[in-house]
Amino acid sequence: MALEARTLTLHGQEIRLREYLPSTRDTTGEPLVLLHGISGSGQTWIPLLEHFERTGFGRHVLVPDLPGHGDSGSPRADYGLGAMASVVRDILALTGNHHATIAGHSLGGGIAMQFAYQFPEMCARLVLVGSAGLGPQVTAVLRATALPGAKATLAAAVNPVTVAIARGIAAAGRGLGGKLAPETRELTRHLSSLSDAGRRRAFLFIARSLIDLRGQRASAVDKLYLAEQVPTLMIWGAHDPLIPVEHGRKTAELLPGSRLTVFENAKHFPHVADPARFGAELERFLDETEPARLTLEEVVEILVRASEAANEVENRAKAVKKVPEKLSPGPHLRRA
């Protein structure tokens, strides 16, 4: 596979970047950026990249390990959505790209939407895969990170010793003919990454900044109107236990021009469960849509129109309240 890996130095910190380079000499269209989810890494996209190589996918693909994840550095830093979106912008700049389709899984979907909000002129399309940030519901495991003592509990549950024990049990199971499903292996890989103290710190920072005991606090729903001109594809697993597919369905209603594809036999990792179908859906979407070319001036115009419309609705509501109610004749009123 034409897959290269290198390390970028970004603001003094190391960022691991995988790049898929088409086998054909000429690439087509703007590059595709693939963003992983919380506690994951760019490795989650390897099955899709292998599919691209088999089918001759003609686009340049950038697959970073986000800060605090994979082989990138884990500094004591800001891991919020805005900071992560800025990292994606800087990676594009360092690789000589100014316009890209941004695809994100889970947390990566939230970062993709934040990127489109912060840097609309750089966002050609959005692909949201089991995306965070589209509704409050989320698994109780992630809500529990808001509890006191979560840091110590996580360190006791996931550390080099417990991970080694789990791997030994898994190896014994394979020796007896057992086999984990692709999505289960991927989830296990995500969890195992938390045995590293730096990855664990980043995980807790991100989870607590976005989620409390009631669910996801961060939401892009009120800003979706800004993405109406950006072609958007959503892909969800019908049996996603972490972020329910209903979030995708509701978002599709709010974005009439968007596309939603539900994988009936997938959970939270549809790109791992069926990379061939995922790749086909993605390629079809790229082929059938024109990339957005928004300017900052156009975004400002959209914001102004939305603000004026909201003010008009508010003023009408106030005017209705000021109209005095007419008293109807009753027993307490006597005619002169």
From TrEMBL:
Keyword rRNA-binding belongs to the record: no
Keywords: Coiled coil, Hydrolase
Keyword check for Coiled coil: yes
InterPro entries: AB_hydrolase_1 (IPR000073), AB_hydrolase_fold (IPR029058), AB_hydrolase_sf (IPR050266), Epox_hydrolase-like (IPR000639)
Entries under Gene3D superfamilies matching the protein: alpha/beta hydrolase
Any Pfam family the entry gives: Abhydrolase_1
GO MF annotations, alphabetized: hydrolase activity
Coiled-coil portions: 296-323
Gene Ontology CC terms: membrane
All residue ranges annotated as the AB hydrolase-1 domain in the record: 31-272
Protein's recorded name: Alpha/beta hydrolase
Species, as recorded: Amycolatopsis orientalis
